[in-house]
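Thread: Type IV pilus biogenesis/stability protein PilW, structure

OP (GT): Posting the sequence first so everyone is looking at the same thing. Length is 263 residues per the record. Can we get the structure tokens written out before standup tomorrow? I want them in the notebook alongside the other entries.
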Amino acid sequence: MPKNTYSFSALIRAFLSVFLIVFLTACVSSGGGSKQITKAKKSRADRAMVHTKLAQGYLKQEQYATAKQQLERALSIDPDHSDSNYVMALLMLKLEQNRQAERYFARAVKTDPENSAAAHDFGVFLCQIGKERESVEYFEIAVSNPLFDKAQLSYMRAGECLLKVKEVAAEQYLKKALSLNPRLRPALYQLAKLKFEEQSYMSARAYIERYFAITNPQPGSLLLAYKIESALDARDVAESYRSKLLTEFPGSKEASTVRQSRD
């Protein structure tokens, strides 16, 4: 009996030893498998990027058919490659395939929310096709990346899009753009227009003067300045803007507008 008991105990210990070895081996194998998967994924991404870079070159040369072939190869290697989807979206825009462009833009951002360039351009695209409110979501995605160095442009574009649909949040986005770049001319001009429409004439004057301080006047901005100063009853200043508009841009529609205002 003692001999049998000893044999049974030894058998149990042997079984546990084998189980432990198998268990640990499985753990190691699993870890190695994860590394292999990660390595394989990186390899696919690298190969997809090679074809995407080639496609970008062809795109610049307006060789669209060849660019498309390279991008199709890239996406066959890695369908979730963000940059490949992004460049394909840009190509679809060139080919005026808006529905396809929207699909590729959406996939580029979904597969890599930190692809801020894709998110920004998707926002611009949506604004252009009449989806102004939806576009803001993608401008927000673009600026959420702290490494994105063109956040002021995303804020400005968001503001411009919301102005088109008379959203009050437009002013907030334009001011955010100016907080990042106080010399951002389109934002200054849009805020001057917005404040004039709101009849906040002193604020409108402040923005248009900041605008003129960093750029040469154009017909639209001169006409706006003329209207602002006229609303403020600053006749001499208004007349100076009118005179400049008529002298430097006599054939413009803005010049025609101020001529008619005196008739």
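GT: Both are above now. Quick notes for whoever picks this up: The radius of gyration is 31 Å. Residues 2-60 form the longest helix (59 residues).
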